[in-house]
Amino acid sequence: MSDHEKSELEQNLTARNTWVRVIYMLLFGFIFWLGSVVLTVVVVLQFLHMLIAGKGNDNLLQFGRQLGIYYRQIIDFLCYCDEYQPFPFGAWPKAESGQSKTTGTTSTKKKTAKKKAGK
Question: How many domains would you assign to the chain?
């Protein structure tokens, strides 16, 4: 290892930003785990609502979409894909009604229904 590489390694190991980020990463890892518990509760409540009312609860649907976006933000931060720090340091994600949780676009089923209605 050259002196330049040793110096660069030393700088990386002593950089304050690196160690602050690892604290954030541990926090978001815990939040991700805690979110799994919340997700389980949402799934159970949505299932019970479906059994009783015969349809999904709109508030739970919306929250589920937001939780999916939030999970994506956490994963992006943890994997160094993004420097954006999700909630509680950033804004809680917003999801439009009828928006796909993965692409942010309106679902194909709804687009097809709109096309048929327009004919």
Answer: 1
Q: For residue 88, report the phi and psi dihedrals to the nearest 5 degrees.
A: -90, 0
Domain of 101? 3-118
Grouping H, G, I as helix, E, B as strand and the rest as coil, residue 106 is strand
pLDDT tens digits, one per residue of 33-53: 999 999 999 999 999 999 999
The whole-model pTM stands at 0.72
**How many other CB atoms sit within 10 Å of the CB of residue 48?**
11
d(CA 20, CA 47): 40
